[in-house]
Amino acid sequence: MYEKNIEPVAIMHTGFGEKFGIPRQSGLVPKAMGQIILEPKYRNPDALRGIEEFSHLWIIWGFSKNKVEKFTPLVSPPRLGGKEKRGVFATRSPFRPNGMGLSSVKLEKVDWNTSKGPVVYVSGVDMLDGTPVYDIKPYLAYADSHEDAVDGFAGEHRWDKVSVSWQDDQVRSQLTEEQAVAVEHILAQDPRAAYNKEKDYIYGMRYEDFDVRFIADADEKRIEIVDIVPHGADYRNIK
Among 22, 152, 169, 224, which residue's beta carbon has the most beta carbons within 10 A? Predict the structure, then answer.
């Protein structure tokens, strides 16, 4: 049997410092930005020559924080409320035999002159900060997009979202406009686990250097952002 050890060619840096809040699919939060920094061994600019001719990229990466001790054939997709099971190979569950992820992201730009070699800026990411990247490939619309594709159960819940509001303008003003929009898009996907949707419970989600604190009404599918504080601040300081 053929086996090959693989190593990261790059590291993805994003605003997601923890798993909670990461979009469940790439592209769902267009304002979620990422920087791909090549490992020293692969920082030759020639390796990226021509990449700017493409609008989108495929990123093959690893679920570095998920440890799978044994093969589990069935998983509970969040889009099914955590109550129904599907085969692991019929889902995009992070708990996989080889822990590999696949994301389609938009290429924003390449900074060719940095102290860490060329840096690739992308958007629409769904990866934890520090995620190992195993390969980068151009997205080819003529081959990778299928007009007659069927999305199965995922497509049925594609537009499942909640409304997002701010407690007041002062809370929102603690972020830049771009950060605020990104947070709104992230929370609209409702990052809460299916088994943990308590009314008026104060949730905390880390984004960049901030902790976003919000309450949710499960019945009305509404989330309200009540505070933005520096990451790590004492939760007793909540208004």
Answer: 22
- In CATH, which superfamily holds the domain spanning 10-144? YaeB-like (2.40.30.70)
Q: Is the pTM of this model over 0.85?
A: yes
User: Which residues in the chain belong to E strands, given as ranges?
Assistant: 10-14, 33-38, 56-62, 74-75, 86-87, 100-111, 119-123, 131-138, 163-166, 203-207, 210-217, 222-230
171/236 Cα distance (integer angstroms): 17
CATH architecture of 161-232: 2-Layer Sandwich (3.30)
> If the chain, 239 residues long, is cut into consecutive pieces of 10 residues, what is the mean pLDDT of each piece?
86 95 92 97 97 98 84 82 84 88 97 97 97 98 91 69 92 94 93 70 92 83 92 56
Which tokens in the block code for residue 132? 């190992």
Where do you find CATH 2.40.30.70 in the chain? 10-144
Distance between CA atoms of 121 and 36, rounded to whole angstroms? 6
